[in-house]
Amino acid sequence: MSRKENKNCLVIALPSGRLLKSCIQLLERAGIDLKGGKEINRKLSFYSCEKDFKFIITKPIDNPTYIECGVADIGIVGEDILLEEKKDVYKLLDLKLGQYNMILAAPENNSQGDFFKNNGHRLKIATKFPHIAGEYFRKKGIYVEIIKLYGSVELAPQVGLADMIVDIVSTGRTLKENKLVIVDEITPLSVQLIVNPISYKTKHDKIIQLLNNIQKSIIGNKGETK
Amino acid sequence: MNIPRGLNDLLPDEVIKRRFLEKKISQIFNQWGYREIIVPTFELYEILSQGSGLIMKKEMIKFIDRQGNIVVLRPEMTKSIARLVSTKMQSEPKPLRICYVGNVFRHDNKTRTQKEFCQAGVELIGINNTNSDAEIIALAVECLKNSGLKRFFIDINHVDFFNGIMESIKVKEERKQSIKNAILNKDFVLLEKILSLEDIKDAEKELILKIPTLRGGREILGEVKKIVDNKLSLSALKEIEEVYHLLETYGLEDHILIDLGIIRNYDYYTGIIFEGYTDYLGFPVCGGGRYDNLSSKFNGKMPSTGFAIGIEKLATVLEKEDVNALKVKLPPKYLVYYAKNKNYFQKAMIIAKKIREKGAIVELEVSGKSFEEALNYAHYYKIDYILKIENKESNCMKRIEVTSGKEENITYE
Hints:
The complex is a heterodimer of chains A (about 230) and B (about 425).
Chain A: E1 10-15, H1 20-29, E2 45-47, E3 53-58, H2 63-68, E4 74-78, H3 79-84, E5 90-94, E6 100-107, E7 123-127, H4 130-140, E8 144-148, H5 155-159, E9 164-169, H6 173-177, E10 180-189, E11 191-195, H7 197-202, H8 204-225
Parallel strand pairs in A: 1-3, 1-4, 7-8, 7-9
Antiparallel strand pairs in A: 2-3, 4-11, 5-11, 6-9, 6-10
Chain B: H1 12-31, E1 35-36, E2 42-44, H2 45-48, H3 54-59, E3 62-64, E4 70-73, H4 78-88, E5 96-105, E6 116-125, H5 130-146, E7 153-158, H6 159-168, H7 173-184, H8 188-197, H9 202-210, E8 215-216, H10 219-227, H11 231-249, E9 256-259, E10 272-277, E11 286-290, E12 304-310, H12 311-321, E13 333-338, H13 345-357, E14 361-364, H14 371-380, E15 385-389, E16 396-401, E17 407-411
Parallel strand pairs in B: 1-5, 7-9, 13-14, 13-15
Antiparallel strand pairs in B: 2-4, 3-4, 5-6, 6-12, 7-10, 8-9, 10-11, 11-12, 15-16, 16-17
C-alpha cells in the first residue's frame, strides 16, 4: 500500500486496544459505515463500504508515526503519546473520548509526610513515559532516577523497583487495587485527531468534511447523554 | 563491519540516478545564471547557529576541533553562503546568483532516519523585491518540472501575514507567545484551549483558528482581505498578490497555490516563503523563502531569498510517480574480449581506446575468462556488445549482441 494508490481515498489509522471501540463508534456516528467493526478483528487494513475510506490498525504508540510519514492521512491518538514523542503533525480536534489524566502516584501506606523527600536517597520513578516524567521533575527541580517500563507500572512500588509512578489514570480503580494514591495531577489528557500536514493540503475538502461530521457527532452525543 | 547509524553507502545503480538528478538540476541553475560555490563541510558553531531555531540547534552534529572550538557539520547551506558572501563577495555587483549541490548533516529523529542527505539549492542575494521572490519560485517550479515531475504544487505565503495578526490582537505578551507556539507546533487543540481562556474578540479568535485553512488560488486573497485589517498582514497579502501575478506571467499558475497556513521551521525568514509538495510524499520536496536579516549577523547587509530541494526526496517522488522516471539512458556498453593469447592484448587495448573515443563505454576483459564466462559477465552488467578479437593482424573481429546472441563480423579502422 503506497501513498500513490491512496490518492483518492482518505486513509485513517486507528489505534488498537482500549480506544478502538470508541473510535469505531465515533466514526459510525460521523456517518462512516464500519459494520460495527466486525471486519477489524480479522484484518489490519480494510476499506469502508464506499471505499472512500481506508482504515489501518496500528499500535497506539505507532499511530503518529504513520501520520508523520504520510502513509496514513488521519490518526487518532492519546495525548500522552503526543507529549512523549514530539511529532510533526497537525493536532486538529479533541475527540472528547473519555477522561484521562497523567498522574504521579505513590503507595498509600507511605508514612513520610512529604512524598518528594526520600531520606536523602534519590527518588526512583517507574513510568512508561520517561520524557513526560523527566520534564515534570525537572520543572520541580527534583533529581530523580527514571525507570522505563513497558507495562504493569503499578507493580513497581510494591516490589521496591520504584518509589513512585507516573502513569495514565481514568477511573483510578487500578491505583486503588494496587494501594496507590495520587500525589499530583501532571496534566489532563485528551484523545486527538491528528493529520499529516501535506494530506491536509492535498485532501483538504475530504478532511474538513470528515472533521465537521465528527464535530457534529461529538456535540450531538453530548446532548444525548445529558 | 558497521557504519554509524543514519549513514549510508550508495551503490552504483543508486549513484547513477543521484548524479543524473544532481546534474539536471545544477544545469537548470546554471542556465538561470546561478554560479556554483562550494563551502566547507564543517564550520564554527557560533556561525552556523546564527538564526537557527532550537530544533535546528539540537539537530546539529557538533564536535570539538584541536583549538577547542565547537564545530558543526553543516546542517544546511544558507548560513554558510550568507557568511561567504558577507565576507568575500560583499563588493561584487548585485544581485549575486549563487547555487550549490552538496550533502548536509543532521542528527536523525523519529521520522528522518538519515543523518546525511543531499540538497541542491540557490540563493538570490542583494535585492529585496517581488521580482526576485518570483524568480526564485519560478526556478523551483522549473527544476521540479524538468526533473520529470508532473503533479506537484508550490504553496506560497508571507511570514508577515501571521506576524501582523499576532501584533494586532490585544493579549498579554506571554499569552501571545503560547498562541504562537501552539501554531508553530500545529497544535490546534491547544490553540482552541488558549483562545477560549482569553478575552479576545470573537472575530480575531475565528481568524486565528482559520489560518491553517486559508489556502487556494488567487481568489483566497480577496476573501482574506475582508477579514484582516492590520497593516502588516495587508502589505504581506499585497506582496503575495504581486508574486502570484508575476508567476502567472511566467505561465506557472497551474503549479502555484497560496497557503496562508504555511509555517517553516526556521527563524530567519522575513518575507515570502514557500514549499513544494506532491501527492506522493508526506513531506515537502523543496522549500525556501526570503531572509533579509541573516547576512547582518555576518556584518553584511544583503536582502536575500533562496530555496533548497531535497535530492533524495525528489528521487523518491519521481519514482513513485513513474517507476522508470530515473532510468538513465547510458551510451552503448562494450566488452572487448580477446582469446587467451597475450599477443592479442595490445590490439584489444587499441580497439577499446578507439571505441571510447566515439563516446561508448568500454570494458577490457582482463581477468582471463573463457568466452562463456565473459558472456555471463556481460549479461549481469547489462553490456550491449562483446567485441571478440580472434587474430592479431587483420582489422576484422566479431561483434556479439549480448541479449540476442547475434554475431556479426566487423572491421575497425
